[in-house]
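Final report, Chapter 2: Outcomes

The project's central promise was a pipeline that accepts a single protein chain and returns its three-dimensional structure in a standardized token representation, suitable for archiving and comparison. That pipeline is now operational. To close this chapter, we reproduce one record exactly as it appears in the project archive, with the input sequence first and the structure output second.
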Amino acid sequence: MTPSLGPAGEIVGYHSNRRSPRPDAVAAISPRYDQLARIEREAPDRKAGMEAAFNTLVETLSEKSVSYDEFVLSL
């Protein structure tokens, strides 16, 4: 998302471009999404589930030695 700036440089809005993902990218990420969603569902509460899924994703990125952006753009 890119901010739209007014005459004095203040943020007056945002612009976002959306596009459909490639089918092969969806197929590549679906198992990981399913894993993270399962971790969230199995937790005792929503907050704990989100934290556990986030930690799992961070561990995966660390194991692969890539940033989140590199991971997503590699699909």
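Archive annotation: The chain has a mean pLDDT of 91.
This record, like all others produced under the grant, will remain available to the consortium after the project formally closes.
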